[in-house]
Each structure stands twice: as C-alpha cells, then as structure tokens.
Amino acid sequence: MTGSPCLFRVEMSVPPKALSGTWQTHELTFVPANNRRIWYSLAGVDVEAAPGSYRLELQANLPDGSVLREQRTVLVTRAKFPTEALRVPQRYVEPDPETRVRIEADQQLKHAAFAHQAPVEWSGNFRPPIESSVSEGFGTRRTFNGKLASIHRGLDYHAAPGTPVTAANSGEVVLARELFYEGNCVIVDHGQGFATIYMHLSQLEVNEGQRLEKGQELGLSGATGRATGPHLHVAVRWQGAYLDPAKLWALRLPELPEASVSPVKAAR
Ligand SMILES: [Zn+2]
Questions:
Q1: Are 168 and 208 in contact (CB under 8 A)?
Q2: Gap between the Cα atoms of 268 and 85, Å rounded
Q3: SS3 annotation, 49-95
Q4: Which residue, among 31, 25, 26, has the nearest Cα to 9 in the 3D structure?
Q5: DSSP label at 255?
C-alpha cells in the first residue's frame, strides 16, 4: 500500500554469501538471520508512489560462485488519506529572502544527514517515541493559509512541552540541531536507508554521531519551527520515500544477530 513500510524476507535452501535486490528505483541490502538461510530487507513504498504492479528482483551469490536470480511481482494498492486546511504565521508560507537562504542551508544539512549510511542498527520492532495519542495521522493533504498544498509526511502526537521523546529503534544520530521548519530536530539512521525524524523539540539531548539504544531519550517535545502548537511530529524516511510511522510501529520485525551488524556497501 502507498506510504507503507514492508519487510522483504527471503528464505534460501543453501545459505548464500550475499543477497541483494532492487525494488522500484531502490537498491535493497539484505542482512542474514542467525542461520544465514533467511535474509531480511526493511523497505517501503513512498506515500506519493503510483499504485500498480512493481517488480522485485533478487540476486543471490552462492558459495560455489554461481549467481541465482529471481523475480516477483508485488501489487501496490492506493491508501486513502484525508484533506485538511491549516493556518500558520505568514512567514512560514511566504518566506522572506533572508529566510529562504536559511531554508536552503537547512536543505543542505538534511541532504548530508540522509546521505549518511549507518550499518544495520535496527533490530526487532520499532516502537512509538512517545507515550501519547495521535493528533494527526500520516498522509493528510494540507493547505497552509489557503495555498501551498503539501502532504503530511509524518505522524503528530499530542505532547505537552517537555515530554520525553525516545528513539524508535537503535541507530546513529546523523542530525541534531535547529532548523527553520522542523525546529529542534533529531534524525536517527537505523541502517538499510531507514531514518526516523523527530521535530519541534524544545530541547535536544543528543549529539550528531552518537549511538542510541532503542528507547533512549533524545530530547523533549516542544513547539519550535513551523508548528501550530506543542506536539511531536515523527517521520519515517526510507531512501527518500516517506512512510507511515504507525505502520512501522505495527510491523513485526526480527531480532537481528549482532554478527549481521556490519557496514553495508556504499554503492547505491
Ligand atoms: Zn506533523
């Protein structure tokens, strides 16, 4: 379904030396379970992807040097999202030249953060980063002050300022700083191109380059940046695709052995 994460699980009768694949325009990296006969790749479908049939191509490098190729067709259905009109201060809709320079600089910072490739750090289920209820779901089509239509690429939680926010899974902090729209923002790289993003924080409690355990506190919620009030906005990004965080929390994921936590190849 569009905007949904998914787990590709491949079972082989002979443990391969390596397993890779392609899905839509993405390169997949797989990590093995303990017995190396089952391999996993956490992936997804962008919220704006067109529904339809897509090819999943797999390539296994076998111990005898041969290469095994397989193809599957996967049907992607359209998820339904609501529409909403919002009002925010005008400077967030029509930024002045000085602000546009800042937004451009923010883009470069985020680009660098997302280009980072952590080893596979996630293991087991992701979990919600805050103990609270959802105030706005993922995928809502929004207008700000009657224009600038955008899609809500994350999940909003009710959060009184100062509520602890924790890492949804283990990973590496690749950005922890104040940005114009996002306010105080933390981006955690979980490996396989998966990142979780935490916005509008009142306080940052981690540094760039720091390793986080699942559930470790990374900051306090707030209302910094383009926020209509205090809340936590959480986003899930996979290789440039934005996915529904609620669906990621609900996805049952395997515990990965420590041995599989090795750097993934840099080629993309
Ligand atoms: Zn939001």
A1: no
A2: 38
A3: CCCEEEEEEEEEECCCCCEEEEEEEEEECCCCCCEEEECCCHHHCCC
A4: 31
A5: P
Q: Distance from the CA of 152 to the center of ligand 1, in angstroms?
A: 6
pLDDT for res 226: 85
93 C-alpha to ligand 1 centroid (Å): 16
Amino acid identity at 129: P
Look at residues 113, 125, 106, 141 and name the one whose alpha carbon lies nearest to residue 225: 106
Residues 213-263: tens digit of each pLDDT: 999 999 999 999 988 899 999 999 999 999 999 999 999 999 987 644 444
> What separation in Å is there between the alpha carbon of 156 and the centre of ligand 1?
5
CA of 213 to the centre of ligand 1 (A): 24
Residues with CB under 5 A from ligand 1 (ion): 154, 156, 233
How many angstroms does the Cα of residue 88 sit away from the middle of ligand 1?
A: 13
Q: Does the pTM exceed 0.70?
A: yes
CA of 81 to the centre of ligand 1 (A): 14
Q: How does strand 183-191 pair with strand 5-11? A: unpaired
What DSSP assignment string belongs to 148-197?
Answer: EEEE--SEEEE--TT-EEE-SSSEEEEEEEEETTTEEEEEEEEETTEEEE
